[in-house]
Amino acid sequence: MSAREEVLGRVRRALRDVPAAEAPADVAVDRPEPRPTTPDDVELFAERVADYKATVVRCTPEDLSTHLAAALQGVPRLLVPADLPEELRQADAILDDDLTTAELDGVDGVLTTAALGIAETGTIVLDHGPGQGRRAATLVPDLHVCVVRADQVVADVTSAVARLDPARPLTWISGPSATSDIELDRVEGVHGPRTLVVLLVA
């Protein structure tokens, strides 16, 4: 018996007492209620993001442009989504107008916003809505600078899922891209940006 046949056999055995007319939506599932966000959650988010070896820059709306310029210093070819908010636009940035993968590989960094941040896990979630760009544009460049507002931080994964549209493409980012081999030698930048900078605006 192949592994595939074994798995399918287990599925059939697990489902044999389910009525044929029953749909998944008919089964009640207990889900924990989303928890309101507190100022402590914003602090925890910043701490957890930093734990992943990402750079966290705390700023206010008034000094965001100054910190943004500092984060992008030395990035000659910066990519931005075509619908990035006007106040975040950089004069010499390259607008992502469906660049090819080879063209994306030629840029040095990407600047985006986010859908939300999760305090419990230090995760940034992109749903690739306005200002967030398409998935390839956030995975190919070596640097990702992401602007997250404090009011976008939620307490935990349950709260995040409650706010996200499951029909949208979702990218969950927990620090710079990294992997390790069997000897636990860490290698960064294998599956995405080697460097993540989060500008946390509060």
Keywords:
alpha/beta, Rossmann fold, globular, 4-stranded mixed beta sheet, single chain, 12 strands, 6-stranded parallel beta sheet, 202 residues
Question: If you had to describe this structure to a student in words, what would you say it looks like?
Answer:
The chain has 202 residues and is an alpha/beta fold. The chain has one domain (35-201): NagB/RpiA/CoA transferase-like (Rossmann fold), CATH 3.40.50.10420. 25% of the residues lie in helices and 24% in strands. It has six helices and twelve strands. The strands form three sheets. The chain has a six-stranded parallel beta sheet with strand order 1-12-7-4-2-3, with helices on both faces. It has a four-stranded mixed beta sheet with strand order 8-5-6-9. It comes from Pseudonocardia yuanmonensis.
Indicate the structural class. alpha/beta
Regarding CATH, which class?
A: Alpha Beta
Distance between the amino and carboxyl termini: 58 Å
Low-confidence residue ranges: none
State the major sheet.
6 strands, parallel
What value does the average pLDDT take?
A: 90
As for the number of domains, it is 1
Q: Helix tally? A: 6
In angstroms, what is the radius of gyration?
Answer: 20 Å
CATH superfamily: NagB/RpiA/CoA transferase-like
The backbone outline, from C-alpha atoms, is: globular
Strand content: 15-25%
Number of strands: 12
Q: Could you tell me the CATH topology label.
A: Rossmann fold
- CATH level-two architecture: 3-Layer(aba) Sandwich
- Tell me the series of helices and strands, N- to C-terminal: HHEHEEHEEEHEEHEEEE
Helix content: 25-40%
Q: What oligomeric assembly is this protein in?
A: single chain
Strand order of the largest sheet: 1-12-7-4-2-3
